[in-house]
Each structure stands twice: as C-alpha cells, then as structure tokens.
Write a structure and sequence with these properties.
The complex is a heterodimer of chains A (267) and B (372). With 267 residues, chain A is of the alpha+beta class. Chain A is built from 8 helices and 8 strands; from the N terminus they run αααααααβββββββαβ. The chains are: A alpha+beta (267), B mainly alpha (372).
Chain lengths: 267, 372
C-alpha cells in the first residue's frame, strides 16, 4: 500500500528538487522558529512546495547577485563543479544559506494536500481545524494562509485526527506524531507514513539530526519494522540512514517525546 | 487656439532644455567628485550580470531638472497665484528625496527598537521623564513599525514612516493652497464626461492622497535607465497641452519648462546612464506632476497622465499584499519592470514598451480633457 502517485511524486520532488539540469538536490530542513519571521512568504518560513522552493532559489540568486543560476534558471557553476553530486551540494548550500527548506509539518501538509486532492478530490487543508472563530484574527489568518498555520499541534488535535492503536491497521497517509520532544521537551515532530510493505512501515519526514552539521540535513526516509504488533511503537525496529537504536536520532526523538501516537486524518 | 501661448511655451521648453544641457556636465562632475554614486550594499534591486554595471553611476541626476525648473520659473514665471506653491511643494519633496539619497550613501545604518522593548522601558525605566518620553514616542514607533511593512528593506536612508510624514506635509500644503487660495471653483472636482460635481472640503484628502501617491509612484518607476525620465517627458508634455487648451498660461509655461529640462536629463539617462534620477528627482517631479494636474482642475486625469507610474506603484501594492497577507508572490519581483527583467526582457525593450503604453494613455487623457 502506497500513497497516491501525485503524493509520491511530491515526495520524490522534495528529494530531487526540480532544478533544470541538476538532479539529486535534496530539500534542506528549515524551521522558522529560530528566525520568527512573520508575514513572510510561505516558502521562506519552511512551508513551500518543491516548485516554490526552486522558483524562490532562482529569484534570490538573481536578486542578491549570487549568480548560482542564470536568468533562465540554469545552474551557473558547471565548470567549477563538474560532477552532478558537487553541483547538487553547491545548490543545497545555497538553499541552506538563504533559509530555503521545509519543516516537518510543511512537508507533511504539502504531500497530503496532493494525496487527498487525487484520492478524494478535496483540498484537505481547508478541512483542518486550526482555531475557532472566537479567535477571529487568527481564524482569518488561517483562512488566508492555511498551510502556514498548520503545525504538528494541529495534526495532533482530535478534531483533525484520530489515534490508531493497532499497528496492523496503519495505512499510507497516517502520521507519527511526537509531542514535547527533544532534551528540553520544547518542540514537536511529525512523520508521514509513505508506504506499508509487509511488516515494514516506510515513512518520510523533514528533520535535522545533530550529526548532520550545517548543510547535511533535509528530508529523509526511514522504516519501522513491526517485530511484535502487540507492543508499542518504540518497541519496534526503527532504521534510518543505516542507523538503528538511539544512533537513529528520529527514534531518539520519538523516545524522548512525552506523547507518541499514530494518527489518521479525519475527513 | 491660443497660438502666442504655445509659442511662448515652446520658447520656455527650448530655453530650459539648452540651459539644462549646458550645466549637465558640471552636475556630473560634482556628483563624481563627492562620490554621490550608486553602491551595491543596501540596493537589493541591482541584479547580476548587466545590472552590476550600474554600480558607481552617479545618482541625484534629478537635480538637473529640479534646479533648472526652479531657476527658470523663479526668473521668468514667478507669481504667487500660480507657480509659487507648486515650486515650493516640489522643493519640499525634492529636499526629502535628496536627504534620502545622501543618507543612503553617507549615513549610518538606522537603529531599530522593537515595540515590546519600548513598552518594557515604559514600565521599568528608573527615570520618570524617560518613561514619559518612551510613552510619548510609542505611537510614532507603532507608526514606524506598521509603515515598515510597506518597505522591503530599511537601508540607511529615510525610513518609510518618515517619508510618508513629509509627503503628507507636502500634500497638506498643496491642499491648503487649492482649497483656501485658488477659489471656490476648485471645490468642485472635474470628472471626465460628467461635469464638475461639488466635493467641498473633501478636496483636501483627495489632493493629499494624489500628491503622496503620485510622488511615490514616480519614485518606484525610477528603476531602469530612461524609464522615469522618458515617461515624465511624455507626462509633462501632455500636461502642457492640457494647460494650453485650458488657457492656463503659468502652468503651460511651467510644464514646458519641465519638459525642456527633462529632455536634457533623459538624454543623459538613457542606457548606459550617465547619471540616475535619485529620489531627489522622482519625489520632486512626482509631487509636481500631481500639483500641476490638480491646479488645472484635472485631478481625475492623474492616473492617465501618470499611467505607467500608477501601474508601477499598484504592482508594488499587489506584491506587498500578496506577500504579507497570502504568503506568496504575485510578480516575480516588484515594481513590475523588474518582473519583466526576470522574464528575460531586455532593459531597452521594457523601457520602450512602457514609454509607448504610457504615451497612449497620456493621449487618452488629453482627449478626455477636451470634454467639458
């Protein structure tokens, strides 16, 4: 069982941002919490689609005379970086330096938007409850800029999702939500179930690991192998980037979370 | 047809153009000598490749027009009833622009204090008079913060809220002159094909709006070599013709003087520009454009005689709205001439097409003005 083809294509595009003539540019992770930009472009606060990130990279390159791309959007430094992976790395560094990337909830929202558009013909973003009309200003903002307002907390809200307790019933499109995680219990994280292959749950997410340094982070994929369905999620085998156990920082985050749940969008 | 008036106007035009051509080299020399040139830091509109060549080009070339028009008008066309206030308001706006230009080059980066910081200071500062001071400046700081949303970068020059304040002042002076000094007929607003409905004191906010909006509109258009200059030649030529058909001698001559000076300016400003207009020229001439149209009671024609400038400023408003409210770009970059640059149009192609479109709308304005 997999996500819809258009959702899988979106995930593929995040792993290979659609730059002209350069493949393998993995979308970096960017969370606006540190900069706290308000009233900014969606793509500059970690909520952009792959196409928006590519377009903004070209504009930023021209506007700030970085000369990474020419006016047609073609990568400029072919001579300095002859190998494809070098070119991709050069572009990735440019993206990181200019705060272009995606955060975990932005990634999930943009993929699921495509998924539900294709499978149910709806814009699920408009169906999510962000805030009540009593908080009128925030409600208006959530109508005008829906994707920007959807955080992990929105996905963890019982009005939007329901908890899945049986690991055998997990489906593509389900979410692994980790609330109040990290050493200081001060952030949330979310993974998107991309595919169910036998006893393996394949997930994708946007996150930075401490071991990845300034430029190594971005969207990544991993698996949770269900070894004993009767036990909890943390008792299963988590593997990502060939790492398991607490070396796998995604697993570590899940372990540190005060709340760890699998949730399904209610529609 | 008042042929002697148009003959006189053309004489002013020729005289003004020759005068401006004569002292243009001196102005260029002064601008180079004092290094009043375009720098790349704080200028986010400079693009890579071709546009890098603009670094080092003198700015404040608009002084050529402002000074020529002021001198010629003060010597040959100076009267309290007609030209006194337009030249004065143009001077205020130009002074504001000149200060901005100079601060952008020689000024220091402006310090910004957060509103929350000021509120904290009001609460905790140990000196009572400082608490009072912060309380008094709080509304101004709130205005600064909200006006900053309109600007993309604070830079080192005059900030958006300060610009708006001084432009409001220029608009208020114009409104005072129109409402209290020009007579009761200016309390009615000429509307194309619809006579002159009475608007009374509403003329005051209308005038202030047009002066502020038009000055900023011309300012936004000053982004490509020859664009603002060439468009302004067409605009003031149109205003000269409209003033002439209305029999407004002083304004026909004033507009002719501006056209003459602008011809000289644009000659030096076409690509590759010998100098650029700068805020001194764009704000000053934008304000003068609005006043000259208002003073001949053709306020409602300003969006037509200043068509391309209005397109430019509206593109910025749309972009800011979409960026701040909807979180996405409407244009690849604003003002709209940069959008076309991103689309791969050459600078010359954009400028010439904009001139032609602008000329069409100015002709449309002249045609409409003939219907009483």
């Amino acid at each position: 069982m997999k996500l819809s083809p258009s959702a899988l294509k979106t995930i593929h595009d995040y792993f290979n941002l659609p730059f002209i003539g350069v493949s393998g540019v993995r979308c970096p992770y960017f969370n606006n919490a540190r900069l706290g930009q308000r009233g900014q472009l969606k793509v500059l606060i970690g909520k952009g689609t792959p196409e928006e990130i590519v377009e903004e990279a070209k504009i930023v390159s021209i506007q700030y005379r970085a000369n990474v791309f020419d006016k047609n959007g073609v990568f400029n430094a072919h001579v300095d970086h002859p190998a494809q992976h070098e070119q991709a790395e050069c572009i990735r560094q440019f993206l990181v330096d200019n705060n272009l990337g995606v955060d975990c909830s932005g990634f999930v929202t943009n993929v699921l938007q495509k998924h539900f558009q294709e499978t149910k013909g709806i814009d699920f973003v408009k169906k999510l409850f962000v805030t009540s009309k009593k908080n009128f200003l925030r409600w208006i903002i959530s109508r005008l800029r829906p994707v920007e307002q959807i955080s992990v907390a929105v996905y963890a809200n019982n009005k939007n999702t329901s908890v899945i307790n049986d690991l055998k019933t997990v489906q593509p499109g389900d979410l692994v939500v980790a609330l109040k995680t990290g050493p200081n219990k001060n952030y949330n994280h979310i993974l998107l179930v991309e595919e169910i292959d036998g006893n393996k749950i394949k997930y994708a997410h946007a996150r930075t690991w401490s071991s990845e340094g300034k430029y190594g982070h971005g969207v990544s994929q991993g698996t949770i192998t269900i070894t004993n369905p009767k036990k909890g999620l943390l008792e299963q085998v988590w593997e990502e980037k060939n790492k398991t156990g607490e070396d796998n920082e995604t697993y570590l985050e899940a372990k540190q979370a005060e709340v760890l749940e699998i949730r399904r969008i209610k529609l | 047809m008042n042929l002697p008036l148009i003959q006189q106007a053309l004489s002013y035009l020729i005289f003004s153009a020759i005068g401006a051509f004569i002292w243009a080299p001196l102005l260029t020399k002064i601008l180079y000598k004092y290094k009043i040139t375009r720098r790349d830091e704080f200028d986010f509109t400079l693009k890579g490749g071709e546009r890098n060549k603009k670094v080092g080009t003198p700015i404040m070339g608009g002084l050529l027009v402002i000074v020529t028009v002021t001198v010629v008008t003060m010597i040959f066309n100076w009267n309290r009833e007609n030209t006194y206030v337009p030249i004065g308001v143009m001077g205020i706006a130009a002074l504001l622009g000149a200060t901005d230009d100079l601060l952008n080059i020689f000024g220091k980066k402006r310090r910004e204090r957060k509103i929350s910081h000021i509120i904290n200071l009001i609460k905790v500062h140990k000196k009572w008079y400082m608490r009072l001071w912060y309380l008094l400046i709080l509304p101004w700081e709130a205005f600064r913060k909200s006006a900053a949303i309109l600007g993309s970068h604070p830079g080192r020059g005059i900030q958006v809220h300060e610009k708006l304040f001084f432009q409001f002042l220029a608009g208020a002076v114009t409104a005072w002159w129109i409402y209290f000094k020009l007579g009761i007929q200016w309390h009615s607003l000429w509307v194309p094909f619809d006579g002159q409905p009475y608007v009374g004191w509403w003329i005051i906010p209308i005038v202030i709006f047009f002066v502020m909006f038009t000055a900023n509109a011309v300012n936004f258009a000053d982004g490509l070599d020859g664009l603002a200059g060439g468009s302004l030649v067409i605009t003031f030529l149109g205003l000269m013709i409209i003033s002439w058909t209305e029999g407004r001698t002083s304004f026909t001559l004033l507009n002719a003087t501006v056209v003459g000076a602008l011809i000289a300016y644009t000659y030096f400003n076409v690509k590759p520009a010998r100098f650029q207009m700068g805020d001194v020229g764009s704000l000053g001439l934008g304000a003068l454009l609005a006043i000259n149209a208002i003073a001949i009671n053709r306020t409602m024609l300003i969006p037509f005689v200043g068509f391309i400038f209005y397109v430019e400023i509206i593109s910025v408003i749309i972009q800011v709205f979409c960026r701040r409210i909807l979180g996405r770009r409407f244009f690849k970059m604003a003002p709209i001439h940069h959008h076309f640059e991103f689309r791969g149009w050459s600078e010359e192609k954009i400028v010439m097409r904009f001139w032609l479109i602008h000329a069409f709308f100015v002709i449309l304005a002249i045609w409409m003005s003939l219907y009483k």
